[in-house]
């Protein structure tokens, strides 16, 4: 069964999340504090995704996210944020979360987001070994679509699954302007409940990882009022 960890200090909200995820067929591990979440995650290495509340006693959800990402680039991470925490959302995403859900949310939205996240983060069967097109190269980058890895100047760049999917989309469409909606549809999937702004946050994060100077991007260019494109110059 697909295992999900829920970190939320408010018992009523945690109960709501747990019961709805269990109804949707997930096995749920519960944690009330960040420390407990990290311990339980270590004890449950088969956990596929974590839902992290931000405001917590002790270490907060953003710090928990950062620590999880240090050791696991692939696990799915969704931040749970209150409506007033706009900046927290962005900070959470910058530390490596894949998505966020704003409280209050409906059971349908919750399970749709978790389902979509697991589809993106490798619930899909492994691709068959392909003889062709396993590498997309544009110096200084080399993207290996079999291993799902990216190198810059021969050095591996650690990417989340979402970041990898965005880079792959860019490199398959070099020089073409891609709209936020197109990126959202391809990477997050049709029927995604979230906002196009999540694309911007992931691009900001990618620029920090890929560009020589994230303030003066040379590879991922902004197409004003539309989206982004990968520079082929
Ligand atoms: Ca809380």
Can you describe what's shown?
Helix 2 packs parallel to helix 3, helix 6 packs across helix 7 and helix 6 packs across helix 8. By secondary structure, the protein is an alpha/beta fold. The chain is built from 8 helices and 12 strands. The strands form 3 sheets. Strands 2-1-3-4-5 form a 5-stranded parallel sheet, with helices on both faces. A 4-stranded antiparallel sheet has the order 6-7-8-9, with helices on one face. The protein is globular, with a radius of gyration of 18 Å. The chain has 2 domains: 118 residues, 3-Layer(aba) Sandwich (Rossmann fold), CATH 3.40.50.2300; 96 residues, Winged helix-like DNA-binding domain superfamily/Winged helix DNA-binding domain (Arc Repressor Mutant, subunit A). About 3% of the residues have low confidence. It binds calcium ion. The site of calcium ion has 5 residues, from loops.
Structure characteristics:
binds calcium ion; alpha/beta; 5-stranded parallel sheet; single chain; 4-stranded antiparallel sheet; Rossmann fold; Arc Repressor Mutant, subunit A; 233 residues
Report the uncertain regions: 124-131
CATH topology of the largest domain: Rossmann fold
Q: Please estimate the helix content.
A: 40-55%
Major sheet description: 5 strands, parallel
Number of domains: 2
CATH architecture of the largest domain: 3-Layer(aba) Sandwich
CA-to-CA gap between the ends? 47 Å
Q: Report the mean per-residue pLDDT as an integer.
A: 87
């Amino acid at each position: 069964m697909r295992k999900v960890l829920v970190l939320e200090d408010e018992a009523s909200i945690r109960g709501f999340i747990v019961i709805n995820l269990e109804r949707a067929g997930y096995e749920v591990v519960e944690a009330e504090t960040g420390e407990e979440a990290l311990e339980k995650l270590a004890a449950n290495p088969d956990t596929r995704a974590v839902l992290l509340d931000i405001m917590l006693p002790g270490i907060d959800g953003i710090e928990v996210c950062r620590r999880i990402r240090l050791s696991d680039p692939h696990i799915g991470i969704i931040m749970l944020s209150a409506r007033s925490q706009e900046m927290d959302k962005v900070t959470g995403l910058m530390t490596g979360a894949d998505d966020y859900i704003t409280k209050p949310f409906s059971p349908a939205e919750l399970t749709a987001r978790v389902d979509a996240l697991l589809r993106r983060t490798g619930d899909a069967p492994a691709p068959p070994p392909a003889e062709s097109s396993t590498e997309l190269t544009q110096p200084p980058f080399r993207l290996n679509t079999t291993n799902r890895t990216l190198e810059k100047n021969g050095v591996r760049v650690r990417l989340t699954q979402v970041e990898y999917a965005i880079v792959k989309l860019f490199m398959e469409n070099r020089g073409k302007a891609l709209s936020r909606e197109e990126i959202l549809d391809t990477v997050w999937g049709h029927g995604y409940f979230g906002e196009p702004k999540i694309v911007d946050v992931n691009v900001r994060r990618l620029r920090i990882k890929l560009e020589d100077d994230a303030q003066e991007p040379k590879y991922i260019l902004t197409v004003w009022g539309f989206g982004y494109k990968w520079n082929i110059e």
